[in-house]
Structure to design on (410 residues):
């Protein structure tokens, strides 16, 4: 964009970009104004500045958002995750193998395959195929880190179990999620959206794994190494720089770049209101169904199987939530810069699911916290010198009473 002052009272606003951008937006970027007030009214009141920013911020735009925004934000998010994860405290949960196996199998296998079956049913409803593929990619993504630990902690659940499984899920997801997506998209139903960047599927898989390792795995481990070497300095830096707020800002920036590309390429023009409504309801239904199902499984009254209430909360959040960062990273890795006209539509199910899991999760936190408090209140206890001793069964009561009598006799 160039502002030319032809004389004292004459201004010209000239678009210096590609003609294709003008055609897509349907706006003529060459205008003349008699004075500065007219120019200000055009650029501010008509909101053309936001349009200019949107066009510049699309993938392949003038600021190259695929590098300056998308890639940098993804690397920053995983680097901050590495700095924030408390490794020493996670070691306490390593031996809880039964819980870890349940969460990972449920999140990375059961949820994707079940959602894939649902996607085949949605095709019969004539839903936009790009949205259906986006739902499949969303379901194949791994669980999120920050949301799980925060919601589990607020609900009085096992915070460290949630954090460990979130980290483990992100590491496994780098290898498992692409394989699942490759398998699902081999169905001829999705031929129009198949991955054709290379002729050999194995080459594609290797390239995607390499991209995920470079953008997710390495930044995470670098952050972990820095935290292990300088734990006190990292904790001080985390408070001063507000890591949580920076993470939220990076996610919003990433979503903004995705929508810039979608609007600039006209991707959303193919989405009908009916499709959008079905997508919103489907995403909400997927989250509610899978969070309820895994909670039911974790509390089955089977000897040596039923998990505690605190563990169940961690299992529920880790089993049903999906990471927006990994989902968008997978879309970028699969489709790169060659199919920008559909990447925005593919990202839409992931973005909507992210918003809905936070909203529904906030309600679940309130209900689960009350559920755990009721469980704590039901535990029998013995009061001695104003000290409550929680007991697991009546045998413990007999032992405590015996010990108390012996002490008093002495």
């Amino acid at each position: 964009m160039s502002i030319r002052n032809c004389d004292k009272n004459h201004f010209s606003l000239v678009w210096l970009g590609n003609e294709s951008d003008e055609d897509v937006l349907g706006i003529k970027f060459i205008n003349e104004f008699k004075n500065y007030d007219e120019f200000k009214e055009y650029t501010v009141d008509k909101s053309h500045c936001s349009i200019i920013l949107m066009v510049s911020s699309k993938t392949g735009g003038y600021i190259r958002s695929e590098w300056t925004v998308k890639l940098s934000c993804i690397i920053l998010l995983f680097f901050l995750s590495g700095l924030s994860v408390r490794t020493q405290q996670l070691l306490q949960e390593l031996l809880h193998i039964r819980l870890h196996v349940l969460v990972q199998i449920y999140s990375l296998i059961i949820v994707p395959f079940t959602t894939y079956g649902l996607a085949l049913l949605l095709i019969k409803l004539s839903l936009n195929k790009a949205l259906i593929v986006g739902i499949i990619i969303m379901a194949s993504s791994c669980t999120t880190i920050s949301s799980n630990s925060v919601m589990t902690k607020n609900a009085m659940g096992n915070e460290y179990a949630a954090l460990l499984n979130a980290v483990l899920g992100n590491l496994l997801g780098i290898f498992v999620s692409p394989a699942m997506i490759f398998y699902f998209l081999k169905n001829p139903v999705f031929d129009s959206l198949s991955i054709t960047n290379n002729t050999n599927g194995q080459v594609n898989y290797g390239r995607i794994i390499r991209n995920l390792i470079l953008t997710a795995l390495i930044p995470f481990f670098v952050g972990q190494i820095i935290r292990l070497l300088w734990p006190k300095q990292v904790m001080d830096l985390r408070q001063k720089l507000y890591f949580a707020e920076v993470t939220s800002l990076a996610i919003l920036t990433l979503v903004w770049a995705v929508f810039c590309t979608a609007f600039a390429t006209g991707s959303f023009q193919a989405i009908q209101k009916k499709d959008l409504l079905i997508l919103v309801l489907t995403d909400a239904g997927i989250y509610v169904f899978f969070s309820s199902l895994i909670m039911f499984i974790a509390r089955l009254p089977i000897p040596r199987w039923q998990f505690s209430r605190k563990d169940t909360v961690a299992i529920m959040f880790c089993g049903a939530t999906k990471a927006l960062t990994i989902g968008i990273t997978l879309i970028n890795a699969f489709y790169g810069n060659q199919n920008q006209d559909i990447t925005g539509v593919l990202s839409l199910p992931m973005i909507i699911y992210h918003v809905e899991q936070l909203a529904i999760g906030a309600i679940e936190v309130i209900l689960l916290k009350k559920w755990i408090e009721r469980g704590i209140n039901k535990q029998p206890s013995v009061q001695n010198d104003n000290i409550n001793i929680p007991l697991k069964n009546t045998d413990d009561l007999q032992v405590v009473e015996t010990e108390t009598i012996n002490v008093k006799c002495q």
